[in-house]
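Fig. S4 source data, part A: sequence.
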Amino acid sequence: MEKISLREYFQQLGDLEAPVSYTNLVNLSNLAEEEITLFKKMWVIVPVSRRQQILSRLLEVSEDNLDVNFDRVFYCCISDSDPEIRATAVEGLGESESTDYISVLIKSIEHDPSLKVRIAATMALSKYTLLAEMGSIQASKKRDIERVLIKLVNDTKEDEELRRRALEAVSVMSIPEAKLLIEKAYR
């Protein structure tokens, strides 16, 4: 299938009666810098419910098709006004092969006002704990991951599910704090 222009694709997406086509989602894969600029301008005029549909579909496609890359779209959506969209965006970034998004996930965990987004970001960050254990992540990023997860687990004012997800993520790390946190959780 031939890739249509992004502007044309957004016009198609504007038809709220038409389902979001799996086939045409490829138009949002591997966007160039100028396309990202256009995406940002056009994305905000799409109704929230439609943006939610689109991002959910992008996540499904990215999980099923390794030939597409929606990382830049997910990254743009991290700052969306809708928490559902932000949660889906962090989940999408958690599927990324790039470690460039670790700091974005940490920022979402520490600063997003939505608990759902913070939980999704914590779950997305858990993939990177495995990479950290395998030595596939820079030491400074590994320390950042450890810091945020340990802080969450230890903060009794935080939501229980958020703390549990952080404990699950940190439990794969071979650091003394992880063992102590697991033992403490079972007391």
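Fig. S4 source data, part B ends here. The chain is about 65% helix and 0% strand.
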